[in-house]
Amino acid sequence: VQATGTAAASQSVDLVARVTGYLRSIHFEDGVRVQAGQLLMVIEPEPYEQQVRLNEAALLMAQAEYDRQVEMAKQNATAAANVEKWRCQRDQAAAQVELARLNLSYTRITAPFSGRIGRRLADPGNLVGPGAAVKLATLDQLTPIYVYFSLGERDVLRLRDRLRQEGITPQATVGKTPVFVGLQD
């Protein structure tokens, strides 16, 4: 049986910015193959680097005050509520540091898997980010590749009859029937 099919990528992802900023640079040529983890684009990282520094300073301050409150509590010079308050503030500051580092990591857009990247849809200097809803590029994984095709009812019935003539139940061939794919020529 011969059927016309359509080839499709086994995985496809639209690359979008997870943080807001100006697109600083693009590190691929349109239509080339890229490797998993390869740097594709950079969004200006400086505001996010400063946010990390700011949150690290707040964490240092909260840790120092917590340590001071613990020492004071040993001398009965402060309330247990103050110690708990500063422990909570220290933990919140630590979480803010991790969140800032995560946002900084989003300024470097890398390929989630190997494949062929399409054309870039934003140029350096454009403001990108979650609010802008700008797709930056599309990455398609072509190994393996899927081929979709349909068989008409007559072909299915003809194949089923042939299998039965050979003493094979059609259910036994599910997932085991060889399929060959080729170009028109």
Shape: elongated
Question: What proportion strand?
Answer: 25-35%
Largest β-sheet summary: 4 strands, antiparallel
Overall mean pLDDT score? 93
Structural class by sheet pairing and helices: alpha+beta
For the record, give the distance between the C-alpha atoms at the N and C termini, rounded to a whole number. 17 Å
H/E element string?
EEEEHHEEEEH
Low-confidence stretches: none
Oligomerization category of the chains in this entry: single chain
How are the strands of the biggest sheet laid out side by side?
A: 1-8-6-3
Essential attributes:
8 strands; 185 residues; 3 helices; alpha+beta
Give a short summary of the structure.
This protein is α+β, with helices and mostly antiparallel strands.
Overview of this protein structure:
With 185 residues, this protein is an alpha+beta fold. It contains 3 helices and 8 strands; from the N terminus they run E-E-E-E-H-H-E-E-E-E-H. The longest helix has 29 residues, at 46-74. It is elongated, with a radius of gyration of 29 Å. The mean pLDDT is 93.
